[in-house]
Write a structure and sequence with these properties.
It is built from 13 helices and ten strands. By secondary structure, the chain is of the alpha+beta class. The protein has an eight-stranded mixed sheet, with helices on both faces. A two-stranded antiparallel sheet has the order 1-2.
Length: 259
Amino acid sequence: MDNQRSFVEYVLRSGARTDVLLSITDDYNSTQELLDLDLASESAVYNALTELSECGLIYVPRTKRWAPTGMGSVVATLIRRQRETENVLRIDTEYWKRHDVTALPVPFRYYLADLSDGTVIRATDTQPTQAEREVERRLAASDSAAVVAPIYNERYSEAFYDGCNDSRLVLDATVLADLLDDDGFEVERNENDGLDIRVADVSFALGVLDGCLLLSLPTLDGSYDSRTEFVAESERACYWGERLFEQVWADGTPIDEHV
């Protein structure tokens, strides 16, 4: 194989090569085991083994059983991540077509595969506040939360203050300007000693709650979309959200310094 060509592309151009490589990285490492998986015809499996071996993605160590090389393991990981990312897009293709993923920092776009268990909650004509009620319910049910808020929503605010005692909040600067004119905001701050607030320029909403991730991306024209909410509950998704929040938090300014 020409070293200037993509190893991932080369593997993906053949379903047999792809399935054989992924199976070997899953410890199906004898030729008979691979044949028993019925991945492809017998001749296609043998051809795939030869091709993968010749381009340095698999080899036969002293155990006399197939194993991935270091490069083969990397290629297999990239293929799995690509498939998982595509699964995220398939969760709700209309959502990803109409929302601006570039609002997220670049590293987090690379790891959208971590959200593969998620779902999109949509408002309907008969339930126009369905997405908002889902966010409100989850905020109220959480003991702690890390929240990024690009807009002010009174219902979210009440649920947040009522349910979350030990929490951190990042507000967009324009939201803070409006809140500072509201005497009730200072009352809420004083009554919630466990709440720490910072200010940053943000266009997406994020909530990392007890075992749950909430994400709301802006639409392509930059406006906030209250009619949809992306929700995920896996450990991977929550960890993705935690890391994203920590980056926004680190870039933010403590509210007292901002004021």
